[in-house]
Give the backbone structure.
Amino acid sequence: MEKYLINPNQKISRINKDIYGHFSEHLGRCIYEGLYVGEDSDIPNVNGMRCDVVNALKEMGIPVLRWPGGCFADEYHWKDGIGPKESRKKMINTHWGGVVEDNSFGTHEFMELCSQLGCDCYIAGNVGSGTVQEMSEWVEYMTFGGLSPMSELRKQNGREEPWRLKYFGVGNENWGCGGNMEPEFYANQFRRYATYVRNYDSEKNWIYKVACGPNSEDYRWTEEVMKRADWNMNGLALHYYTVTGDWGHKGSATEFSEKEYYTTLTKAYKMDEIITRHLEIMNRYDPKKRVDLIVDEWGTWHDVEPGTNPGFLYQQNTMRDAIVAALTLNIFNKHSDRIRMANIAQTVNVLQSVALTDGEDMLLTPTYYVFKMYKDHQDNTLLGSYITSGKAGEEGAQLPQLIESASIDENGVIYATVANTSAQDAAEIKCQVADFEVKEIKAEILAGKPGDYNSFEDKECVKSGEFSDFTACADGFTAKLPACSVVKFVIK
Ligand code: AHR
């Protein structure tokens, strides 16, 4: 029996709701087909945004959405995506599949999407192939309320009031697809570009500026950028993807051995070490902890589904992906004192999506259910908690079988989420909540075999449901968590 201790007296940090954020790029069928079908589509939509996906994302509690890229951001010229649709420029999306981008989804459409979702906006600007003026004018177009060339242009295009822009990214992966820069060079570029990302209304529309951070374990990037950070930098954005094999042979999303299952989870669990090491460097240069860590791209990256465009990054999503999501979100919660936002890649039809579409059909993936179960943590206070656990996987493995986090809301309700990473073994746990008198416990579970997934033929193979295999006691509960499961306990 493993021991699980939750201490409501130890209130650690606010879990910013934006840790549960998402990312959507002009890539494959994420924006077009996945989120936006156009006003004239037969697929039910409101102003071009498909209703089924928007409703599902709202129900899941999406707090913030990042757009337009990714690599696409550093070749995106925002003026091509405004004004009458018939006169918008067309371009080739050279990064992603070489398809024609007709720019029918641009700034106004993105803001409309966020407004329908009821979420905040996070826009990534173009440093790689754009100018300082272009970036500066985009921010002016979106956020300036007074009289100026860009605010007039916005009004001509039908939008009187400025939009609320919460986050602005100064470039994306500028160590790679965003210009192949050295960190020293990028740091200076950041200082230059960010100077002109003006705060036109610091009180109501203050813009949080995100600098391009490191790729995975590139600690030199963090070191060099933090050395040169100035007051303009509010967050540094790390990217870390879980790739089971190597970049040439990543491995199938649905066909994998038990060994590969554990490899995936072990690599996902590395997120904890990567975050810890980047934070150590950041804290050295920024002892007052002014600059937050952002993880604005994360998730599993498998081989594309057979027969699909390799540039579209379309992959299925199994219980293995759900466990990756659950353990990663628990890690983010535990680091919520320093992590302000995270964005899983990518919302629909690309990489570790929460929804997949096929024409007018839509399904929700196992990862969707994890986000929906975990939404209760949003804006709660992280509590001190600890679970004893053996390791899962082969001899010598470093992956804990049980990975958890716990939070408390403003009404004193405690939410504890536990992932059982073992493919074979259930786990018996005894939970004790310090100085707490339990009146009621409810629980929800997502479980299955590692390879289980939802298909268009069987959309409900994996879904969350009520969990009752627990016994409440005066100060906690005992429970048996099935193998390969995620369980949320709501303790009142
Ligand atoms: O999410 C897919 C791609 O991964 C993004 O465009 C890029 O930023 C990263 O390399």
Remarks:
- The pocket of alpha-L-arabinofuranose is lined by residues 25, 69-71, 172-173, 297, 345-346, 351 (CB under 6 Å).
- Residues 169 and 335 are 21 Å apart (CA to CA).
- The mean pLDDT is 97.
- The chain has nine helices and 26 strands.
